[in-house]
Amino acid sequence: MTTTSKSEKHAEARKAIDHLHSESRSADQLMKGITELLNQEMLKYNWVGFYMLEHGANPPVLVLGHYQGAMTPHTRIPLNQGICGAAASSGKTVVVDDVSKDMRYLACSLETKSEIVVPIYVHGKVAGELDIDSHFPAAFAPEDRELVEYCAELVGKRLNREPHATA
Ligand code: SME
What we know:
Blueprint: H1 6-23, H2 27-41, E1 47-53, E2 61-68, E3 76-78, H3 82-90, E4 94-96, E5 114-122, E6 125-134, H4 142-160
Bound molecules: methionine sulfoxide (SME).
């Protein structure tokens, strides 16, 4: 049996993401592929999904897109709610090591212990985000953050090239 170190696993995932990016014919296909790949390949990424800002909505609202994992009651999230709202309104990555201690947290599954949310930028503005929940506490180390931010950046770049890509 061979063992794979944490950093090797991240490097492998990044290569697989690059391959997926080159094979994807649309941002939609890329986003679907990213949810599948991260959920299957990364042991602690138990729920992986995209929330995108609804076009023209006022007040703005995040709408659930492609996801892998348990069904969530949170299919529409206003920007003043949840970790998701915090990441979208600040435009910054949010990492929560223990969701039970974060008052902003909107529960998706009782099993979730930690979460990362990374904004996606299109034409310089937040257009959505990549959200990952883990059943493990403090699952998102700096190398996870790098990997998830890389995925969000690729999606943003692809959306930049598509019409109607901004909210
Ligand atoms: N936990 C998120 C809500 C989305 S579910 O995790 C899928 C939040 O606090 O915004």
